[in-house]
Structure to design on (617 residues):
């Protein structure tokens, strides 16, 4: 059974408060009665002094009343019954004596039963109200629910509030129609979507989109954030995940949204020693829930991440988060639309041209633009102006850019030109070579530092068999960027291709040591994974291959990559006119699709397109 520390402490505090409350009530009750507890000897003395007017004798207690109140004002007293011959003595003194069947039933009820009942009712009342507000349905779920689940029955956000991410909206439209009517969706033979991963830089509106899907479909929105699972007792995370799914199943149709999935679903091989067990347990529980999960009941899983590359590959496997939706930084038109959404909330001078402002804000995310509109309105207010003008926006842009520049970089003009050629290089090589996925969209909109681009690939085991030529062509596409730079700047290449080279090297290494595709090295396997191989090669304790073979592997990898580079360069030389034209168009529009620039279109188009290969450089 999981141990939820927070609930436990709450219960302990409640208990302490209840006991204190009972004691206080008892105190109040006895003060109300003005009763004083006295020793028996004093009682005898009082009797002898003829101070007592009346007593009630219980089986072990004597309650009495004095003829005249003491100096403290107390006239009632109570004492323990000691003397069995008491009644005679009392009668002899002429005192009225009454026997009580059991001492102070009434006061006992007042002192214990009523307060206890009161606290119980309070407890029930508090928790039922709490539980119902959470939509968890009454007292019974209290003991079971460990999850800090946020459920919104109406997110009040719709697709209208999200702009500039039309592709993502289009993909999610299917989810909306499924949630609106899960039953008839299945009848038409369409397979219900299960897990969809929203991928994109921070601030592009992933969380907003997820809530908009719930709003559009009019279903409940269960959400948790992966970062909540960090620093938790072992077992709690797993219990939360279990409860989340249990509750969502009861509330179907609904959406489960896991924000910051990377915090929870970080690749199991990465990370420190501390907390690994807990994360693994939580992740395993999530994987188990994903597998034992039937979407036809009308529950859709959405997750968001800005670091897809560190996710555990198991999460991306077929039947889990096997659909990825790219939520990219907006292009110029998108930015203009986002500005319009947020400008609705302020008083805007009619002369302000939002399209022009969009042109000045390359690289801004939706969150940056929302911030910009707000800043501009703040500046206008400070000026005591009636409306926000273009000058306010210009001032706000400077301010916001200063903030963004700390986080990510804005490209200079020569840099932009280089990046445009680089990206067009990838796209044209991909369009030229057979059996590689075409590029759907090319973009030079800068990304945050450290973001390695948003090309998502499913683990190879879920893909079809790949021929050696296909792998070679993939490497060629990866080197297309650098080849284009080299053509443009006459061999002066840049650091921008580091990530491309890394990925090209990985593929070449796999070809050589895993698939036996390099003639010089031969057809045998040398390791389980590239990382494993490198570790082995470095430690030299148990070399995966002999020194000579290791050298041959190195040479083979280098040859594969340099041959690919030469091929990419040749292709681009042949298509130099397209390269120049495409790069110019890209500089102008920042992001272009195959529709904007047909030369990057492949003929005939492949059936299963990959996500756009749009990399930072
Ligand atoms: P993410 O989850 O991708 O980091 P959020 O959804 O949290 O980004 O976005 C933060 C805020 O920025 C939103 O609440 C919204 O005001 C604004 N925003 C971001 N993207 C958009 C967009 N595409 N359209 C309109 N507003 C946006
Ligand atoms: Mg978010
Ligand atoms: Zn590249």
């Amino acid at each position: 059974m999981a141990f939820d520390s927070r609930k436990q402490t709450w219960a302990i505090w409640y208990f302490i408060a209840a006991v204190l409350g009972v004691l206080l009530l008892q105190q109040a009750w006895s003060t109300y009665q003005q009763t004083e507890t006295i020793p028996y000897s004093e009682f005898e003395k009082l009797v002898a002094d003829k101070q007592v007017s009346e007593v009630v004798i219980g089986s072990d207690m004597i309650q009495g009343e004095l003829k005249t109140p003491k100096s403290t004002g107390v006239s009632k007293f109570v004492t323990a019954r000691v003397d069995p011959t008491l009644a005679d003595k009392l009668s002899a003194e002429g005192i009225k004596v009454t026997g009580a069947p059991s001492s102070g039933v009434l006061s006992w009820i007042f002192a214990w039963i009523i307060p206890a009942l009161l606290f119980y009712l309070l407890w029930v009342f508090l928790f039922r109200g709490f539980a119902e507000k959470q939509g968890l349905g009454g007292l019974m779920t209290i003991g079971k629910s460990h999850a800090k689940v946020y459920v919104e029955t109406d997110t009040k956000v719709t697709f209208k509030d999200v702009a500039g991410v039309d592709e993502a909206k289009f993909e999610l439209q299917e989810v909306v129609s499924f949630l609106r009517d899960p039953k008839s969706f299945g009848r038409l033979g369409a397979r219900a979507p299960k897990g969809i991963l929203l991928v994109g830089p921070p601030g592009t509106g992933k969380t907003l989109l997820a809530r908009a899907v719930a709003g559009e479909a009019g279903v409940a929105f269960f959400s948790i954030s992966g970062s909540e699972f960090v620093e938790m007792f072992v077992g709690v995370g797993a219990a939360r995940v279990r409860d989340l799914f249990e509750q969502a199943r009861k509330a179907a149709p609904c959406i489960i949204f896991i924000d910051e999935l990377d915090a929870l679903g970080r690749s199991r091989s990465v990370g420190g020693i501390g907390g690994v067990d807990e994360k693994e347990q939580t992740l395993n529980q999530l994987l188990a829930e994903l597998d034992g999960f039937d979407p036809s009941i009308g529950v859709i899983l959405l997750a968001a991440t800005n670091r897809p590359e560190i996710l555990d590959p198991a999460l991306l496997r077929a039947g889990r988060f096997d659909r990825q939706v790219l939520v990219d930084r907006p292009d110029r038109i998108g930015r203009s639309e986002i500005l319009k959404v947020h400008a609705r909330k302020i008083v805007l001078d009619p002369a302000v041209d939002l399209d022009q402002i969009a042109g000045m804000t390359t690289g801004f995310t939706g969150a940056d633009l929302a911030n910009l509109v707000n800043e501009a309105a703040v500046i206008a207010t400070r000026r005591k102006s009636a409306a926000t003008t273009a000058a306010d926006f210009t001032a706000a842009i400077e301010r916001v850019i200063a903030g963004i520049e700390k986080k990510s970089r804005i490209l200079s003009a020569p840099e932009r030109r280089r990046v445009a050629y680089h990206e067009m290089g990838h796209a044209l090589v991909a369009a030229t070579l057979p059996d590689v996925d075409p590029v759907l969209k090319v973009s030079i909109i800068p990304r945050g530092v450290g973001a390695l681009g948003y090309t998502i690939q499913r683990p190879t085991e879920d893909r079809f068999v790949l021929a050696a030529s296909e792998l070679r062509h993939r490497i060629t596409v990866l080197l297309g960027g650098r080849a284009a730079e080299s053509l443009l700047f006459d061999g002066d290449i840049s650091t921008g291709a580091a990530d491309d080279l890394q990925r090209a090297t990985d593929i070449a290494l796999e070809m050589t040591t895993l698939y036996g595709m390099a003639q010089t090295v031969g057809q045998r396997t040398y390791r389980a994974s590239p990382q494993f191989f490198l570790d082995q090669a470095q430690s030299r304790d148990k070399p995966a291959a002999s020194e000579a073979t290791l050298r041959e592997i190195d040479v083979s990898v280098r040859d594969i990559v340099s041959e690919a580079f030469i091929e990419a360069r040749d292709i681009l030389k042949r298509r130099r006119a397209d390269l120049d034209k495409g790069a110019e168009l890209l500089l102008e529009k920042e992001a272009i699709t195959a529709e904007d620039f047909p030369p990057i279109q492949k003929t005939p188009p492949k059936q299963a397109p990959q996500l756009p290969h749009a990399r930072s450089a």
